[in-house]
Design brief:
This protein has about 525 residues and is of the alpha/beta class. About 35% of the residues lie in helices and about 15% in strands. It is built from 19 helices and 21 strands. An eleven-stranded mixed β-sheet has the order 1-8-2-3-7-4-6-5-9-10-11, with helices on both faces. Strands 14-13-15-12-16 form a five-stranded parallel β-sheet, sandwiched between helices. Strands 18-19-17-20-21 form a five-stranded parallel β-sheet, sandwiched between helices. Strand 9 and strand 10 form a beta hairpin. The longest helix is centred in the C-terminal third of the chain and has 26 residues. The protein starts with a strand and ends in a 12-residue tail after the last strand.
Length: about 525
């Protein structure tokens, strides 16, 4: 079959595309949401051809598209006041309304249900084609069944060339995800599929609405799909998609650990520069509308790049974000990875970090002490000891192969350059040990706290979602250090003065805990 590409700016070509539809042929048309594979909704054979072209089972109902509100009346048994109110507020636009169907709706359109889904697109080309054809159009997304929906004509060409009579090129779709679907055949009305019209907007007209559990979960075993897009797996590229829940630092830590050839990340704008994986950006973190508009194109681009796995930063589930999550959860076949939060814990010596660490353990967290990690990386025979010998000499190691800490300290802290060299050798090894510890225990704890005196000077800081700085008055710190280490006041002062000022720590803190010995409240963190 030769598929003709129509120019959407040429009225003659629009009329020619509409004539094909009136003859019972299939034509892909642009809408504001995604491209639709259109056929005469009142022609059972033409509708059946949609399923054949898509390779789609006929157990999923289709949406009927109209160009004017008056065209809904022959399609349904009645138009209740709440339907009129929704249409007045949101039509033309990305909202589909489900009502009890009239006798003229073929079972091929409704998948044998007693209801029909109707919408009036806002895309001027779509409405012009419907008006010219003179018939309502059944139009699911114009893609091969299961693949990401098409938001550009080139996507339709990739999937449908040679399978249908025509494709109308109307440019890129503005909304980018399919319409919101609300059924008024239940009381209260129920949201079956989220889209560009949000639950909050629907409530502003309807008052109480229910959100179907299948919006964010699998359709229950044996349940009938009352709306398009409710199936288990949908909108999916050939690559395996994983939704990663957590903050950006958690996302980065996770992808750094699991990355392999063929892996890609989908992140928010600006985050790509801090990720090792090749990235696709799908909009600002606070703009679900941008994410919706770009999502399907990115999933298709991932396949063109030969991606094997795609790790996606989880969007918000508020507003249009619910629609983005709904599409992603099905594209991922419900593969969701929860990455726990990583909290950095630091402060000047004697401030009382250990006390705060114990409180974090009581909150259910897993505390990693970097002092312990630092000792592990220089155990006898470790590669770090060999690097230290090369940098500071053979005499920093005893004859039995164990590290001579005093000899190393004498050399390493003799100059600022030597101290930087020490940190350059040890910090990456400590960071790697901490990362492995987190990965090994990530499924067992809601968060991790990394206790590190030099947190802000190390790579570990880059992986922390938030930081707690513990501080205390200097006299209290002096007493603690003297008692803890059995040293004089003068020696304790030297240790205090060797560290950055309290202001240095406070300027980098997300949460400050004052630990002068009274009760400590971590309400700001939890």
């Amino acid at each position: 079959m030769n598929t003709r590409i129509f120019n959407s700016t040429d009225k003659k070509e629009i009329d020619e595309a509409a004539a094909l539809l009136k003859e019972g042929k299939l034509v892909a048309i642009p809408t504001e949401t995604v491209y639709g594979l259109a056929a005469d909704a009142l022609n059972p054979k033409a509708v059946a051809d949609i399923f054949k072209a898509k390779g789609r089972p006929q157990d999923n109902p289709l949406i009927v598209h109209i160009s004017e509100f008056s065209e809904i009346y022959p399609l349904v048994k009645e138009v209740p006041d709440n339907a009129k109110a929704l249409a007045e507020k949101f039509w033309p636009g990305p909202l589909t309304i489900i009502l009890p169907k009239s006798d003229i709706i073929p079972d091929e359109v409704s998948a044998g249900l007693a209801t029909v889904a109707v919408r009036m697109p806002s895309h001027p080309v779509a409405r012009a084609i419907i008006k010219s054809a003179g018939v309502p159009l059944a139009a699911p997304s114009a893609n091969s069944s299961g693949l990401p929906s098409p938001t550009k004509a080139e996507h339709v060409i990739d999937d449908m060339m040679g399978k249908i009579e025509g494709i109308v090129d109307g440019g890129e779709c503005a909304v980018g995800v399919e319409s919101t679907v609300i059924t008024l055949a239940t009381n209260p009305p129920r949201l079956l599929r989220p889209g560009g019209i949000t639950p909050e907007q629907l409530r502003s007209v309807l008052g109480e609405i229910e959100i179907d559990s299948a919006v964010t979960n699998k359709l229950k075993e044996g349940a009938v799909a009352a709306s398009p897009g409710m199936k288990y797996k949908h909108y999916s590229p050939k690559a395996e998609v994983y939704i990663v829940k957590g903050t950006f630092s958690s996302f980065r830590c996770f992808t750094d650990e699991v990355m392999a050839e063929g892996d890609y990340a989908v992140c928010f704008d600006g985050e790509e520069k801090n990720l090792k994986l090749p990235c696709f950006c799908y909009g600002s973190e606070d703009s679900p509308s941008q994410q919706a508009q770009k999502l399907f194109a990115i999933l298709r681009d991932a396949d063109k790049k030969g991606a094997k796995r795609v790790f996606v930063r989880c969007p918000s589930m508020e507003g249009v974000g619910l629609a983005v999550y709904n599409r992603l959860i099905r594209a991922a076949a419900f593969r969701v990875i929860n990455v726990p939060e990583i909290i950095g814990l630091t402060g000047q010596t004697g401030a009382g970090k250990t006390t705060v660490a114990e409180l974090l353990k009581e909150k259910g967290g897993y505390v990693i002490d970097c002092d312990i990690a630092a000792r592990k990386i220089v155990e006898k025979g470790s590669p770090v000891i060999e690097k230290l010998k090369e940098a500071f000499g053979e005499d920093i190691v005893f004859e039995n192969g164990e590290l001579n800490r005093k000899a190393l300290a004498k050399k390493a802290f003799s100059t600022e350059e030597n101290e930087k060299l020490l940190n350059k050798i040890t910090h990456p090894a400590i960071t790697e040990l901490v990362r492995k510890d987190i990965i090994e225990n990530k499924d067992n704890f809601p968060f991790f706290a990394v206790d590190a005196a030099l947190l802000f000077e190390s790579e570990i800081y880059d992986y922390c979602n938030r930081t707690i700085v513990v501080c205390a008055d200097e006299n209290i710190r002096l007493q603690r250090i003297m008692s803890r280490d059995s040293i004089s006041r003068e020696e304790a002062l030297l240790r205090i003065n060797a560290q950055p000022s309290e202001q240095y720590y406070l300027s980098k803190a997300d949460v400050v805990v004052k630990n002068n010995g009274g009760e400590i409240i971590l309400a700001d963190l939890f």
